[in-house]
Amino acid sequence: MRKLRFLIPVLGKLLIMFRLICLILVLCVAESVYAGKITLKSVDRPAEEVFAEVMRQSGKNFIYSSDILKGLKVRVDVKNKSLGKTLRELFKGTDIEYKIKGDNILLMRRKKEKFVPKRSISDPRLMDTDSIKVGILRDVIVDGSRNKTLAMNSTDIGALNVSKDMIARTPVIFGESDVIKTLQFEPGVSGGVEGTAGLYVHGGNMDENLYMLDNIPLYQVNHLGGLFSAFNTEAIKNVDFYKSTFPAKFDGRLSSFMDVYTRDGSNKKLNGSIRLGLTSGAAHFEGPLYKDKTTFSLSARRSWYELLTLPAVAIANSINDKEDDDFSFGYAFTDVNAKITHKFSNRSRVYALFYYGEDYLNNGTHTPEDKKNDYYDKDESRLRWGNIVASAGWIYDFTPSLWGKVCGAFTRYYSTMSTLTESATLNDGEKLNFTSNKVSSHNSISDWIIKADFEWRSSMINKLNFGASMTFHNFLPSRDSRELVADGVTTVLEGNGMDYKAREFNIYAEDNLSLGDRLKLNFGLHYSLFNITGKTKFGLSPRIAFNYHLKDNVSIKGGYSRTVQYIHQLSQSSISLPTDQWVPVIDSQSPQVADKIAVGAYWNAGNMFVVSVEGYYKWMKHLVDYKDEYYLLPPDMQWNAVLAEGKGTSKGVDFKISKEFGKVSGQISYSLLWADRQFAERNGGRKYPARFDNRHKINVLVNWKINDKWELGASWTGMSGNMITLPTQCWVDPGLAPWHYNMLLKTDINNFRLPFYHRLDLSFTRHTRHGYWTFGLYNAYCNMNTIAVRMDYSNSQFISAPDENGYYSYKLIPVFQKIKLLPTIPSVSYTWLF
Amino acid sequence: MTIVLTGCYSDFEPDIDSTPVVCINANAKVGDVLKIFATRTWRWTEINQDEGADIQLKDGEVSLYVNGELFEVLHYSEWDYHDPKYSWVNKQCGFLSSYYPQPGDKIKIMAHSPLYGDAEGEVTVPFPVEINEVESLVSDLDVCQEGNTVLYRANVSLGIRFTDPLDITNYYLFESNLNTYESSFHDTRVVFDYNSEPLFTEHVSSLESVISETSGYTVFSDRMVSGKTYPLHIRLNEIEYRVSSENGFESNKSYIRFALNSISESYYRHVISVWESNDGINGILGDVGLADPVWECSNVSTGAGVISAITPASIKVPLSSFFKED
Predict the structure, then answer these.
(1) Number of folded domains in chain B?
(2) Does some domain include residue B300?
(3) Partner residue facing B295 (CB), from A432, A572, A744
(4) Residue B250 forms part of a structural domain
(5) B251 and B318 both lie in a single domain
(6) How many Å lie between the alpha carbon of B290 and the closest alpha carbon of chain A?
(7) Nearest CA among A508, A552, A610 for reference residue A49
(8) Same-domain check for residues B36 and B62
(9) pLDDT at residue A56, as a whole number
(10) A47 pLDDT above the threshold of 80
(11) Whole domain around residue B69: which residue ranges?
(12) B250 and B145 inside one domain
């Protein structure tokens, strides 16, 4: 009990919320007798909205052709009725008829037109029916209508639902489809360094995004320094992404929230896919385990760079000079997603999921056995870093209007590096003068989480979401040790290897209210506590948003969100490295806080296009970054000794036109952004622009389904270059260091904008009887973009004219040089569906 | 993948204004007269390395303060300089003072240029820390008679003990060199190996120990050994030491000088920053645009130059001591 004392001072404030929850639970019990029946009232509301409610209460999905519902508004008033009666009432007086097939409700016109299902709408929370779409309706294009609903009918600003198909259709480097690279095409989102799976939302940092796997945080989301994300597309069902206003359920990060829902598995038959690409292979299997009740989904992916590196190393070692040491090198990444779902009834379902992802790198040199003569030498490095997530939950419909989910989870990020150097003189196999120097470093974060989320639709016009969670964090920011063995004496030097335990408590409630046909309101509150080293920090995050329909197809929105972040990632670079550490706010540090105001206008043009304009202004405080000259402190110093606290702002406009149906679909977007930072102990206290303050950004994404066999995907990105720090002045080397270089005069951070960036990517998909080929062309017109500037000597003016004696002299002409990366990169992969 | 991940370079002139400022370099060494090098900075593309450019502050003025008092005002001059490593005499130019630094002195240097403005910085001369003793362990000893000489070959592991003063933070530069001037056998050789001493790599992280070059850097702070007596682990590899059969060890008085120099914080920070900039993970990534650049550390108000101090303390160890029988 003593451990929970930190909660006591705030219990009073939470009492009101607990009372509310108790009241809701009483209502649940009272209403549970009506379970399995539908209660619904609607007066001329859009059909999609009413379907969403029917889906929620019945657990069924609607599948229909989009033109059926064009402008359809329905009138219904049922109380405690069966699904059949409700549907009859719903479509009374329309030319629409329905069929209930398993978990799906198929809609079609009464005319004798042959029904060709093209699109479906689905609720990702309830949807365990992807399998059906795959199994029975493989050609169904999983829709984007949810995005239209998000844009037109919800109060969310900057929200997006990304389907697996959308991810797979986006052309990307090496043909490795990637949800984060798909999101990079959203306005207001920067991808960071060329080719990587970076996500910098509205000028924020990478660690300001909360990545979740089925609602459980995932800390390390990159493989191979960020070239690929940790999310295997084969395992994904769909993804929710929020970048401007945030549901009260989410807190803990300043910039965005991304929740990846993994596949549950088909309950009909075993099916899956195997994909072979240039850089990795992936397999996915799913199917029923027990009747219609239990399903599984298993996905695995592994890189195969060893196929290239192992022979190369073997050849190099075989032609190595006999006196030379052999060397070794190996790199691989792996990830596995597994999920089992069991359905007790239409109201009750449990699941368990597991994720494991790891990068492994080893390299070294050693004296091989056959070359050992009088000297033995070994130099070996091993690096291993990755994530583990395990989660289990129970989803239950208490009543047709109350839904709940309870889950427990464990998530861990770890990184371990070690270097071993050994040398000895050999005398008849005996090691003399043995010297060994071992350096090792570990860092990790482990969380145990319990959480509960509820959704209660008290009426057709009101929906309440509420829940709570408790997280037990264990941080190991850094544990470094050095061990020297020389002359039989072992010397051990250990840095600060202290781990920190923290408890984080979150509670939230959010109400969605429709006032008449035109106005929707969302207001919520998220309260959090973070207890570490005996001190408790708290955050109160209010959320408010509205959606007002000026016309049936035009709406405007506005909203305010506050977010509070207690943990952050220390990263010295723009790529993902195993040295990146997750650390908490401790001692007198305050949590990072961001306040954001956003407004938007949306136009559903002829049910074909959705046009949106969103503006935002965000101001942040207690931001964390490295101090000036932090690198002068030893690497094993406690992390907060090198950190500075500061503030920042970002503002901008995101404009987007999207067309999600038809043979040609896609989107065009433009974003305008300003983002800056200011820290007392960084850049001499002066304000500077954020690294990824890409002032203008244009994205064009097109998918053309040419015929049943061929599909073409094209994406073009053009944006203002990243900001970099470019010194221009040099000073005389004082000659103190052992080697001598040009000394560079310190300049303001991010003082130079790289040239305009642009790139076209293409992908061609050829469907075959058993699967499909994907041919990709990254940077199709080979515009090698500038990623950095270096100071070097010109190659073109290197040799001077010969002097009178015929001698050439070498003239070193100092120049600034643009470093340009990535030419056209072709790729091919084959995916076999079974 | 490596084949397709290629890049290229193209020359350009960035559209950034940059203004030269005054730079001051001065290393106050106990036992040597203080020389101050006040220059200006230059734009990277301004100076062709062969042709050079005049960056000296010939019309500048330097004021030297010692322990808060104005010691002298200096003007630009040229003087002869004899580098002990070489036999010839060089010309040096800058601002030559008449001041000989003493441990504990607080030195402040102010430079003024009518064209480039002002700069200033200061340093405190550190106190010496003596080497207590040198322990040695000889291995792989091989003695062979070659004509009228005896050649000794061996490897030696050393423990060079010193006691760090507890009261203040100390920074050190360890150096060693072989002196064969007093020998008639100039084939005497030693390979110094500093890789066994972890203090020399305390600034190196685990990842850097995989990808970075650390050799040559022998500065360290007393963070790990504050107030303690500690033996620096140095190895002398492949020693070859020849003496005449007739006069024995008296014929070859070659010795190794081990120097434990106390250095100022500005000296230490600058050297570490040079390593970080060129071999550290930040510098490596910064060079290709994947991280912010690492600056060479300066303690001058303009950010250009280093005003540092060094107080040597050394011990001579004759090579013969490794081979003499007690």
Answers:
(1) 2
(2) no
(3) A744
(4) yes
(5) yes
(6) 5
(7) A552
(8) yes
(9) 62
(10) no
(11) 22-125
(12) yes
> How high is the pLDDT of residue A4?
39
Fold category of A2-34+153-833 in CATH: Maltoporin; Chain A (2.40.170)
Domain boundary among B92, B125, B158: B125
| Residue A35 pLDDT class (50, 70, 90 cuts) | very low
Query: In terms of domains, do B175 and B35 share one?
Result: no
Give the residue among A553, A485, A546 at the shortest CA–CA distance from A519.
A546
CB–CB of B291/A572 below 8 Å?
yes
State whether B209 and B315 are in the same domain: yes
**What's the CA angle centered on A207, arms A157 and A655, to 5 degrees?**
30
* Among candidates A579, A731, A736 on the partner chain, residue whose Cβ is nearest the Cβ of B27: A736
Q: Which residues of B touch A425 (CB under 8 A)?
A: 139-140, 155
Instruction: Give, rounded to a whole angstrom, the gap between the first and last alpha carbons of chain A.
Output: 54
Distance (Å) from the C-alpha of residue A668 to the closest C-alpha of chain B? 29
Q: At A804, which amino acid appears?
A: E
pLDDT at position B182? 67
Q: Nearest chain A residue to B195 by CA: give it.
A: A437
pLDDT tens digit sequence for B158-202? 889 999 998 788 999 999 999 887 667 778 899 998 887 878 888
**Nearest Cβ partner of A724 from B20, B281, B289?**
B289
Predicted confidence at residue A509, as pLDDT, reads: 97
A729, A778, A791, best to mutate vs chain B, most B CBs in 10 Å: A729
Same domain, B109 and B217: no
Question: Which candidate in A736, A754, A808 is best for mutational testing of the B interface (most B CBs within 10 A)?
Answer: A736
Q: What is the pLDDT of residues A728-742, one digit of tens each?
A: 999 999 999 988 777
Q: Are residues B107 and B158 both part of a single domain?
A: no
Domain endpoint, select from B125, B158, B181: B125
B1 domain-assigned: no
Where are the domains positioned within chain A?
Answer: 2-34+153-833
ipTM for the predicted complex comes to 0.92
Tell me how close the Cα of B203 comes to any Cα of chain A, in angstroms. Answer: 5
pLDDT tens-place string over residues A195-220: 777 899 999 999 999 999 999 999 98
Residues of A in contact with B210 (CB under 8 A): 363, 381, 383, 417, 419
Residues B101 and B224 reside in one and the same domain:
no
- Euclidean distance between CA atoms B25 and B60, whole angstroms: 14
Residue B277 resides in a domain: no
| Of A291, A298, A444, A422, residue with least CA distance to A367 | A422
Read off the pLDDT band of A536 (50, 70, 90): very high
Tell me, yes or no, if B59 comes closer than 8 A to chain A by beta carbon: no
Above 60 in pLDDT, residue A45? yes
Length of chain A in residues, anyone? 834
Q: Is B8 on the interface with A (CB under 8 A)?
A: yes
Cα(A570)–Cα(A638) distance, rounded to whole angstroms? 12
Among left, alpha and beta (phi > 0; psi -120 to 50; other), residue A622 is left
Looking at beta carbons, which residues of chain A come within 8 Å of B271?
736-738
Q: Is B149 helix (H, G, I), strand (E, B) or coil?
A: strand
For residue B111, the distance in angstroms to the closest alpha carbon of chain A comes to 15
